[in-house]
């Protein structure tokens, strides 16, 4: 029996990854003035991965990685003015409108009265807090947790802190490595709702094999899944 619903935020409740992709495109235009036709995606990703342990997830770390990648790709020829443009791209991401995914508000309004609800997101504290406030969804959650990374240890700490039994919890999210696998590892249920674009870092090849793993086409399918899990005689 499920009594707690945990939700990821970025690309599960609201659009996020497109912001990074659009900004990366703008960075390519700036770098392209120095090296026409330069492919920057791979170089930027390599810098991001190198910096992840130092900067963590989020826009601020991404912005610093864009600056570093631009300096590398232009062999230090990039002008201070263009570095300033890159910093401005990062700042614009911080204040971009929060666009809700389809069906999210209806589903949250429906389930938040019937289940204990917790939002678990990783990334930068300032950025995530601001997005939660701007989304207008905060009132649907009993708890909000912003963590540095989403591994089994981090989920375990969150569940302990709020006295949540993973066996009675369903985590809903778009990332297999961040939202699904760690929760399954702890004995919880997890529902994967794929998002149209996936950051390479969150890519995962195969579905986990578990009775506690569920696949949803869209957020509005959550209600059917919850009905299914409530069926008498089903041990979940
Ligand atoms: Mg996500």
From TrEMBL:
* UniProt key word Acetylation: no
Q: Which GO molecular function annotation, any one, does this entry have?
A: hydrolase activity
Q: Which InterPro entries match?
A: HAD-like_sf (IPR036412), HAD_sf (IPR023214), PGP-like_dom2 (IPR023198), S-2-haloacid_dehalogenase (IPR051540)
Q: What UniProt keywords apply to this chain's record, in alphabetical order?
A: Hydrolase
Q: Does the keyword DNA damage apply?
A: no
Classification via Pfam families: Hydrolase
UniProt xrefs under SUPFAM superfamilies: HAD-like
What superkingdom heads the lineage?
Bacteria
Protein name listed in UniProt: HAD family hydrolase
Q: Which organism is it from?
A: Pelagibius litoralis
Starting at the broadest rank, the lineage of the source organism is:
Bacteria, Pseudomonadati, Pseudomonadota, Alphaproteobacteria, Rhodospirillales
